[in-house]
Amino acid sequence: MARGLANATSLPRLLLGLTLEDPGRPMLGYWRDGAWRRMARGDFAQAVADAAAGLRAQGVTPGDRVVLVAENRPEFMIADNAVMAVGAVTVPTYVTNTVADHAHILRDSGARAAIVSTPALAARLRQAGELDLLVCMDDAPAGTLPWAELTGTHADAAALIAEVEQIPEGRLACLVYTSGTGGTPRGVMLPHRALLANCRAVSVLVGKLLRMPREATYLSFLPMSHSYEHTVGGFIMPSAGAEVVFSRGADRLAQEFAQHRPHIITAVPRLFEVLRERITAQVEKAGGLRATLFRRALALGLRRLDGPKLGWLERLEDAALDRLVRNKVRDRFGGRLEALVSGGARLDPALSGFFLALGIPVIQGYGQTEAGPVISVNLPWDNDRRSVGRPLHGVEARLGEDGELLVRGALVMDGYWNNPAATESALREGWLHTGDVAEMRDGRIYITDRKRDFIKLKGGDMVAPAKIEALLAGEPEIAQAVAAGEGLAGMVALVVPAEGREAEVEQAIRRVNGKLSPVERIRRHAVLPEPFTVENGLMTPTMKVKRRQVLERHGGLVESLAS
């Protein structure tokens, strides 16, 4: 563990303290003005000090909430740390939020200041509510303060480092509004203590157990406004010694894998689905010997994972296929990948098995915004893909009487902002009630479903939709799916087909039904003409389908399927 991490009591002290260890070491990589650029630790610390001085000059005081709306870029991390360094509270929100979304957050948090990246976002915030301070990073329009002006005073970075050493770990650091899959977002109060607990537990695994070299690279593309990437990319990876490279977007990932050859990537299940679709489509298009070798490598790889054991001739064949097939797949990810970590939602074991069988080190973790957010994680050499791993060091986990997973430790939130009823429901006697139904075996956590998402059929049977939806999305003919059945005689499904495979959806559903119990089987389905996306409001920015919104929008269709 880095010396700064061991001694830090606040998040700004953690990152600014890196300067004391090695100021010239690259910390951030980013695209600017047509080229990739790097920012050293010392330059980052100076930029944070300049921004902190500017915020103070503009009247930002301890306890103030400051909304932060920007893409993944150095200025996001600089602003985030500067806000916390002056004792204020960061409220990170998505660039995809509507005016109504921002209005709710401004009203609920009481924020009177905001920092945004673009003029379009500045206009959206202006429409959302009254602000005393609005800072714009790019091309600041009238009525906003240019980022360059906010950071224009050269401040004393050493003095700020000494000052942030006095910030107590129990002070509120950030207010993260959960996007969730339905309902009104609630502000999760995360003190410095919660994120630091995550950093201490995970950085040991990242920095030592994964044996990352000095020049290790972490490719960041999930939005930093989400608690997952905010903690992992914003604090855990830098504190573990990795250089954080900000991706230009999911559509450029394949190119960036080759350019930056990352050691670690974090992702959500939807990205794994997209990557599998691309890989299999390319193999099918190639056909011939290449397709035959690929399928054999996949089959033998799955045998190594699940048994039965390979015979000696099969082991020789598998070794040859490792060179002929798997090395090429690994090269697509840059050839240096130590871990491809999935979080944010349950990863279907069949999906992770696809990548593991092809030599890609996929490991699944688990967490919640209310817990910093990382609770547990698998390790490459201790990986049960059907579980979400073992609880982190310092995390207590147990099951409630109804099977709900309960968590306790320094990582747990202080509660929900201005919502004592919700806080009382979620936090009882120090235990966070996660809302997830789980099993625990041999120290591992196995998530089975969301407690609140169980469907009660007309006959009284309880069905877990997540299992059905994962199996449906695991079929190559199906891109996305939502299962429904509350109050109905049987289960139905809304399905988005894979491109060009609409006619094959029926047979895919028959295969899935063969894996389900009679009560779980899909009786009828409908094929939707357009996918669930962030733009149409049916997917969160971290690519989770909003089940409730999908069912509300297509309620008439569900009723027709049930009739």
UniProtKB/TrEMBL annotation:
<dbReference type="InterPro" id="IPR045851">
    <property type="entry name" value="AMP-bd_C_sf"/>
</dbReference>
<keyword id="KW-0547">Nucleotide-binding</keyword>
<protein>
    <submittedName>
        <fullName>Long-chain fatty acid--CoA ligase</fullName>
    </submittedName>
</protein>
<dbReference type="InterPro" id="IPR000873">
    <property type="entry name" value="AMP-dep_synth/lig_dom"/>
</dbReference>
<dbReference type="Pfam" id="PF23562">
    <property type="entry name" value="AMP-binding_C_3"/>
</dbReference>
<dbReference type="InterPro" id="IPR042099">
    <property type="entry name" value="ANL_N_sf"/>
</dbReference>
<keyword id="KW-0067">ATP-binding</keyword>
<feature type="domain" description="AMP-dependent synthetase/ligase">
    <location>
        <begin position="23"/>
        <end position="417"/>
    </location>
</feature>
<dbReference type="GO" id="GO:0016874">
    <property type="term" value="F:ligase activity"/>
</dbReference>
<keyword id="KW-0436">Ligase</keyword>
<dbReference type="Pfam" id="PF00501">
    <property type="entry name" value="AMP-binding"/>
</dbReference>
